[in-house]
């Protein structure tokens, strides 16, 4: 009998990039973020390794790295076949370990760490099957895929049987949709022209260039000052015209009524959605905003800080999100993302994943592609965010053509980074960090 492949080690590096220097990624709540990720490697006794990341914006990265290390005991010595034969139970054992669950449960730092680990496991599984993750998910039997989900606290809304039924109904036409995906790619929007810390000139220049590259969907940051936001929206509209889509993102800055008033003032710029208008846990606040903005044609989008499937369940049931922005690293990895994609399908809410961060574009593309081929069957109203930063560090960076993600072909759920990038940007001893400390660009912590 063949020996089962076992996990021999779990390691994590604290990787940070100095994006604050150019105000890349800046918004109303994170004025100078340094895009960062714990970089997790799960190595097996065959030498095969899976890599996973989660996203943070600087100093807090170290805390998530510690949380990843705390999971080591639950992973080392495990046979991959045992994990993949009943991934739902294994996922549940990770998030329910009785000494650790008090830190969440299933939220915050501990859930970010769960995501990095779980995504590394899916990277291993997809590499073993020699398929990119989206294809692994698309080809999986509905019963098998659904067995990876922990249905606890979801069954009042979506049962295992209903989930299997959604997937079974979409079996027909799968081949045609896969062909369409491979030919045309998946629609995207860009956030890279509209970070809050960018000058008007920079916004105009970047939007002009993006338009020339074929982009037709744009998002800009708002929330600091309504007059500034209107001026910047006007610049966008003058640059990209009235037919392109324009979305805005307040990163939780407002009170509920403030969000309504602010967005009514911006309505003349034809805004498709307001993202994260208020506190990410305020389900009823989002519902109130959605109701109030319906007459001016603005939807509410949220999800990048929506902690788990139980929160998504509430937002979807309450009509509090018109665009469901799953985040591959905020939810507890692929298992929970698939659960939310199925929930969103039940409520007919389009999934438009969040991807402003390190490696998020590389991850979420798989989730939307799976959604299109195997769950929703539609690209209508659906788009994946694109943020044009740090892809040069990735071993298999995303490929975009004319504002559309091209389906990745590399086996895995790939967030592997170049050795030199890891050596340069590991905090605080990486060569680039040492140089920046010496030049006084940053103070060591
Ligand atoms: C701090 C991040 O850049 C955040 O602004 C990303 C985000 O909200 C988005 O991409 O959406
Ligand atoms: Mg956002």
TrEMBL record:
List each copy of the Mandelate racemase/muconate lactonizing enzyme C-terminal domain by range. 200-296
Known EC number(s)? 4.2.1.68
Q: Which residues form a coiled coil?
A: none
What is the scientific name of the source organism? Pinctada imbricata (Atlantic pearl-oyster)
Q: Which family does it belong to?
A: Belongs to the mandelate racemase/muconate lactonizing enzyme family. ENOSF1 subfamily.
Catalysed reaction(s)?
L-fuconate = 2-dehydro-3-deoxy-L-fuconate + H2O
Q: Indicate what this protein is called per its UniProt record.
A: Mitochondrial enolase superfamily member 1
| Keyword terms, alphabetized | Lyase, Magnesium, Metal-binding
Q: In its UniProt record, which GO terms are filed under biological process? A: amino acid catabolic process; carbohydrate catabolic process
Q: Which SUPFAM superfamilies match?
A: Enolase C-terminal domain-like, Enolase N-terminal domain-like
Q: Which cofactor does it need?
A: Mg(2+)
Which branch of life, at top level?
Eukaryota
- Gene3D superfamilies, per database record: Enolase-like C-terminal domain, Enolase-like, N-terminal domain
